[in-house]
Write a structure and sequence with these properties.
By secondary structure, the chain is of the alpha/beta class. It has helices spanning 13-25, 36-43, 54-65, 87-99, 106-127, 141-154, 170-178, 196-203, 227-237, 274-277, 292-299, 332-341, 343-366, 390-402, 431-441; strands spanning 134-138, 161-165, 182-186, 209-215, 240-245, 269-272, 285-289, 370-372, 380-385, 411-413, 416-422. The strands form two sheets. The protein has a seven-stranded mixed beta sheet with strand order 1-7-6-5-4-2-3, sandwiched between helices. 46% of the residues are buried. The structure holds pyridoxal-5'-phosphate (PLP). Pyridoxal-5'-phosphate binds at residues 81, 140-142, 145, 169, 171, 215, 219, 244, 246-247, 273, 285.
Amino acid sequence: MTLHGPGAATGDLATRAAAWMRARLKGSEVGVIGDKGWLDANLAGSITDEGLGLDDAWRVFNDVVVPQNLGLDSERFLAFIPLSPSVAGIWMDAICSTANFSAESWLEGAGAIAAENQVIALLARTAGMPEGAAGCFMSGGSIGNLSALAVAREQAAGRRTVVVADTAHASIDNALHLLGLEALEVPTGPECRLTGEAILATIADRRDIAAIVAAGGSTNAGVVDDLAGCADVAEALGAWFHVDGAYGLSAMLLPELRERFAGIERADSFIVDPHKWLFAPAGSCALVYRRPWLARQVHTQHGPYIEALRTDDEAYNPCDLGYQLTRRASGLPVWFALTLHGVEAHREAIRHGIRLAHLLADALDECEHTELLMRPQLGVVLFRRQGWGRDEWAQWAATMLREQVAFVVPTTYRGEAVGRVVFMHPRTPVAVVSELMAGLTA
Ligand SMILES: *Cc1c(COP(=O)(O)O)cnc(C)c1O
């Protein structure tokens, strides 16, 4: 009776956990990069036959594990793609852990799946997908891209080449490798934007194109590809058109930005990661298909006990649409936050990051030592600093972290070391812009 039920031997863990969560929800630190030697030494022996008991187990968690991480959810985490889950989403995620809705099949998790489907429908509607479009939530963009491209391959009748931009996310290359498909890389030029013309110039008279992958916001530069131009070429070639919108496609919810995503309505599949710019906790990707029945042919698993999941031809099973069986209801937190606060509150939260990106861009423009690489389209800013190379950028990042101004990671742009900042957290203070500028001009 140690593990389960009202008598589970957890002491006052519930009180500690709730207090811990409340404290974290006030805001988190930028954090540190963990020290392997120290961590290994302090965690060795934590798992014993008898158990440490609550006080010691909690102490190891709180004093050893917790402080040795970066806070991607910190309002000053401005590298990679940050996470900034909403308070409502976080509490609902904790409820998901408690309830364990088995959201792989309608048989097991109809209520949770139906709620998740409200979010899928919102995204499909906003994109302008036709009636009949459907999808599912997955654990992240990488597995979402893999699942969509597996369906693309099945439709390709032996064609094995997939057009990708030189700016495509690393997960696309990985997925193609796993699927035995071959990437044909298209150069995007100084604007870092994949266009229909660039694809045509690269493929010349090749007709073995299985799919075209475009980005609804590239991760490195935050640039939305020419989705309409890509859709034209895909249509002419009879190729699958997939849009990887893991980072930026949430921004199509903003009416003032919808036009930038023109062409998304012609995608065969697209993904959005709500754990990025729709403020869900980590582990949430929405995958949408124009013709979901094609996905079912590829992803439905068969086996002695699994056939029981096929209770009804009309039944909607997320596990038939992507490469995942047992699945947390990772769309439920974002559904709940949308239901509680409304879409407009989410739009406003997205807008904050875009506003900050423009403020930093203006400051970089005005400063004589810095140069903006391109006007930000979403929340990513790329820039040069006169006389700075890789070493100076690394120093800048180290200083910003030491002073807890921000966690930033420089990147490369066409082989050149440059500065990169990503704004996403709705509570990032405007003051961070001048603090970053001070670090650039010191
Ligand atoms: C983050 C990202 C991915 C990968 O998503 P995960 O959720 O980290 O697996 C794929 N594509 C783009 C454009 C991304 O920004």
